[in-house]
Amino acid sequence: MPEPITRIIARARRRLQGMYLWRRVIAVVGIVATFGALLLGIARRVIMPWAEPAVIVAVIGAVLVVFAWTLIRPPSRRRIALEVDQRLGGRDQISTAVELSERERRSAIENRQISRAASWAEARSLDGFGKLLPGWRVIALSVLAVGAAIALAVPASPADAALEDRQEIEEILDAQAVILEEAAEEAATEDIAERLREAAEELREAGSLDEAERLLGDTRQE
Asked: Which has the closest alpha carbon to 85: 41, 112, 120?
């Protein structure tokens, strides 16, 4: 294949891969951020401590998948030739030249077609081939989705406050359970020690401070 055709196809391949990469990344980030915003909106009312990490992991994972997919599956030479013809007005010259160059035997007319395509490619730049980034509407929608996800993730929510309260209660109950376990080690009889250990286990499983106080009261009475 003539050098001018090989050169323009190589340049077009790099441009196409860049276009595919950026457009896919922006689209995928927008889609994942949209679903992430929905999840984070639910997480503001329902305790879901894994919601924010899940959204971050999903965005990073989606971007990595797009990068890998774009690099692993580059456009074929025929596809690039068609894109060059369509975007730069080649009138099927490059795609025809690529197809003819793959033949072992060619007629004089076919060789002239390849030569004309090479002459056309020699004087052709990639100006007008296409922009790397998609249209502003796609970018705006993706930015809006990301902004919504951030707006839902950053401010404290009622679910965050409930989670903090639950963690504080668990810490208090665990501390009380440790006291009971220490008392069990110093109990006068094995029956008392066993009851104290059972009370410590029940205390850790208590759902509220009121229930914990009731359990402690029962333990003291016994």
From this structure: 120
Cα separation, 184 vs 199, whole angstroms: 10
Mean pLDDT along residues 14-36 = 94
Question: How do the domains of the chain map onto residue ranges?
Answer: 3-153, 158-221
**H-state helical runs in the chain:** 3-43, 51-72, 77-88, 93-101, 108-122, 136-153, 158-185, 190-204, 209-221
CA distance 95 to 2: 13
pLDDT, tens only, 164-181: 667 766 776 677 777 767
Q: And the tokens for 18?
A: 């860049």
- Report how far residue 24's alpha carbon sits from residue 33's, in angstroms, rounded to the nearest whole number: 14
Per-residue model confidence (pLDDT) at position 47: 73
Alpha carbons 99 and 114: distance in angstroms, whole number: 10
Residue 56 scores a pLDDT above 90: yes
Looking at residue 22, its pLDDT comes to 93
CA–CA dist 152, 185 (Å, integer): 49
Q: Which residues neighbour 51 within 8 Å (Cβ) at sequence distance 6 or greater? A: 39, 40, 42, 43
The whole-number pLDDT of residue 160 equals: 59
- What is the SS3 assignment for 128? coil
CA–CA gap between residue 8 and residue 93 (Å, rounded): 12
